[in-house]
Amino acid sequence: MAFETPTLNDFVRISENGLSTAFYGESSVLRKSVLKVLARVFAGVAFLVVLLLKKMWKNVFLTTCDVETLKDFGVDFDLPNKPESFSKGRVIVKASSASTVLSQGTVLITNDDVEFEVVADTTIAEGSDGTPVGVIALASGANGNCSAGTELSFRDGVPEGLGEEVVVDSEGLDGGFVVDVTVNGNVEKWGETVEEYRTRLLNYRRNQPHGGCDADYKTWAERFSSVSRCIPEENYPTSGAVTCVLANYHGDDITLNSTNVAEVEAYIKSEVRRPITANVAVVSCSAKSINLSIYLSSNTPEVRQSVMDALNMAFRSYVPGDVIRASDLTVAIKVSATNVDYVNVTSVNGSDSVTLSKPNHELPVVGDVGWT
Known about the structure:
Layout: H1 8-23, H2 32-58, H3 67-77, E1 88-95, E2 100-102, E3 107-110, E4 115-118, E5 122-124, E6 131-137, E7 151-154, E8 162-168, E9 179-183, E10 186-190, H4 194-206, H5 214-221, E11 229-234, E12 241-247, H6 258-268, E13 279-284, E14 286-296, H7 301-315, E15 323-325, H8 326-336, E16 343-348, E17 353-355, E18 362-371
Parallel strand pairs: 12-13, 14-18
Antiparallel strand pairs: 1-6, 1-8, 2-5, 3-4, 3-7, 4-6, 7-8, 9-10, 11-12, 14-16, 15-17
Helix pairs in contact: 1-2, 3-4, 7-8
């Protein structure tokens, strides 16, 4: 039987019974009113000791420790929590006449007053196509994640020789994420939730480094706030090669732009990290929209949301090349969803199954859902 922490009232009752047996009766040494006061004092001290022991016991294990101890484990493993992350990517800037240099530190702003800074001096070539320019958000968080084609403007006036039109390139700006986490009474800004960090540390403890095994590549890639999941594909596309497929589940788009991919790739392929015999490629996944037809016996908004949550979790278990079967999704929903009396996924993309393309690094996302 598992140990249960006694309540304060339990300690008071135990103390009163013990003191009554020793000091109360025909040869009473203590008055009953005094005995009750002493019982509460002794019970309070014992209760505080038990609470302290309970906290110490919980902090022995990664699965139950508090956030302060979790950070200490991260120091021991050399796996700190992910820092707050800033949206980054490229925008297209055009020259109004001859080629012009756009200076590092120039600030661009969206219609929603989200500011971005140019990361390096860039020569803007003359021509109608414009020149890609690397930018990063000045503030962390998802507010800086912008879709392709989003219009920006120069905050402090258009530099001489440049056109006013600035738009986000086809890959978009992404990677921004921030969570407020309370540590020792202070609020810190993290790039992952506490439970996501706990999962990373647990995976590291269960899969110690082995000089380039599957878990090593995951640990290296998932240190970055822009990466929620890394899927290492061994001997792909050729023998001796490793392809790391990256996905980001913090937002509506699971793909990463080339700026964030390059950052992860530089870290993994460092000479002090990558096995010297491995030919490593780091790529973003591509999103495969899965349209579903689902029969529900209790078709309410609450049940629908529960089913959608179960689908999103189920989709995170697939890798490129897998086959998604309607029958498997039905089982996943029955296991994870709540308040579902009867459910049946009748089709995925109009068929019984759909295959995720491995060459295109496809991962599934929930598309249109038809409810009946």
